[in-house]
Amino acid sequence: MLSPLEVEAILISLRVAGIAVAWILVPGIALAWLMARHEFRGKALLDGVLHLPLVLPPVVVGYLLLLSLGRQGWLGQWLNEWFAVSLPFTWQGAAVAGGVMAFPLLVRAVRLSLEAVDVDLEAAASTLGAGRLRVLFTITLPLALPGLLTGTVLAFARALSEFGATITFAANIPGETRTLPLALYTLIQTPGQEGAAARLCALSVVIAMVSLMASEWLARRARRRLRQRDG
Amino acid sequence: MSYVTAAHDGAADARSALTLDVEQRLGEFSLSASLALPASGVTALFGPSGSGKTSLLRMIAGLDAPHRGAIRLGDETLVDTARGVRLPPHRRRLGVVFQEPRLFPHYRVRGNLTYGMRDAGHERFDAVVELLGIGALLERFPATLSGGEARRVAIGRALLSEPRLLLMDEPLTGLDGARKQELLDYIARLAGDIDIPIVYVSHDPDELTAIADHLVLLEQGRVVADGPLEALLQRFELTERLGGFDAATLVTATVEEHDPHYALSRLRLADGQWLTLPAVDAAPGTRLRLRIPVREVALALDEPGAISYRNRLRATVEEIGPSRPGQTAVELRLRLGEKGIDEQRLRARLTRKSLDEMGLKPGMSVVALVRSVAFDTRHS
Asked: Between 1.10.3720.10, 1.10.1040.10, 2.40.50.100, 2.60.40.1180, what CATH number should domain B249-374 receive?
């Protein structure tokens, strides 16, 4: 049914996108919480930097990643020296690229849902003896759950469809960094592979639809649970 | 509104539970208060909206900070700007009941109640659930509760966090008359049953005369008066703020006997005089606080003959309130009993014309006629 090459591309894509979301989830929520609940100097600047991946050409982001995380890059050198880790041209590198591109979408969605949580409820919890962390984990995050889920799925979909930053930073290595979009690109470049390209194209549509529907279903479920309790 | 509530001995100890001396500015509004609140009973922070009573409560709770000043609970400093001390709300151990119930929508009633519990104090849990009558609601989500039920759960939740002081910010807001009365009865019972001082914010004179022992009167961010409620209710110059036309005074009486045939109860005042009320649902020996509206008291110079007023109390005119030409009514303060022994005070309002025609003067003996209907019994 699916050719070995197609299976490989799908598995790489799911792995890359999954890891991408996994590593940005905690810093993304933390940053969203900081932005939603606190005023500090440089907040507007941080907000701007945060949104850069959304507005910059993905190739630029990929190139910046190469400059900083490459073997000669300041961060890359450090990683190599201390952890013997090298990210460029590896699937882990593709996950970093996908995560960076998905980061603003995640923070945005989570921030919006955190801002919608009633701070009066948080104040009530604190008068009942709950410290900041307990308030966060028992009141704020549970009430922001629908937005959290939506943001996660959105970030996953973005990482799944990543192309420009990935090909620049992690290249297009078969069996390593050749995700679905890169495999499709390769097929389009190859004469006589129109049929295979069409199949990958259809596959991409199916995966996108499934993740969209899953997100909708999850969010609705979470909302319904809150509403049941809510009125 | 009920006029009868259980009397709790507001006297208690002289040590202060809460001392505060704070200043706060919010734009045009400035609040400046210096107070020592008693360690027991119900203290009402009373005043019109914008008087600063909620700001004061939020500073005590730790939700806002004063610009200058200190708040202490017993020996512990909650906040002191001079020393840079500011205890966060969750370290203050104060229970807060807000205007809105603020129940957590994703927890059941049980989860809300146990949220602030310090240890598995199941006895206390059961007692509070029983006291507030919320046993049947435990497995429900807050969204399915009525307004009155949600308030009771919010009160229970605050109580179960074992606070050293319970702060209530107009907890009856948004309830209709019957629900209001019901919840007020719960709070009054609570004040009598538990040994936690309560600070109760309100702008409704009926509410505070029903449950307060101590009163702090606020206006435009300043303390206008501060003292035992009974004493403040005697002050002529406060009438306008404490109910106006509906102003009332408080007396305490002990239930002696019931007369089921006529559905009446007889109560004895401190000086031995009797009062007859429509049947009160309280056992003989119970001390009740009675609210006597100033406008329900008429005066006679001698014991009148047959008259439908059941309650005739011998009293002495103590003071005649200020009166101006062109004004119809004047208020008088009467004393029941012997000064320094078993005295209680009562106020009456009559027309200036009656005052002059009767030639009433301080020190004169009169008979105060109190209409029975003035004693509304507590709804159960």
From this structure: 2.40.50.100
Task: Indicate the CATH number for domain A4-230.
Answer: 1.10.3720.10
**pLDDT averaged over every residue in chain B:** 85
Share of chain B above pLDDT 70, in %: 93
Report yes or no: B95 at the A interface, CB cutoff 8 Å: yes
Q: Please give the structure tokens belonging to residue A215.
A: 């997100």
- Please name the residue of chain A whose CA is at the shortest distance from the CA of residue B158: A128
The answer to whether the CB of B252 falls within 8 A of the CB of B242 is no
CB proximity B45 to A under 8 Å: no
Burial (CB count <10 Å: 0-12, 13-18, 19+), residue A199: middle
Q: Give me the interface pTM, i.e. the ipTM.
A: 0.79
Query: What distances in angstroms separate CA B46 from CA A108, B21, B336, one per listed residue?
Result: 44, 18, 28
For A121, which residue in chain B has the nearest alpha carbon? B102
User: Which residue in chain B has the smallest CA separation from A119?
Assistant: B102
**Of A120, A128, A225, Cβ closest to residue B115:** A128
- The model carries a pTM of 0.80
Query: What residue ranges of chain B are covered by domains with CATH 3.40.50.300?
Result: 4-245
CATH T-level fold of B4-245: Rossmann fold (3.40.50)
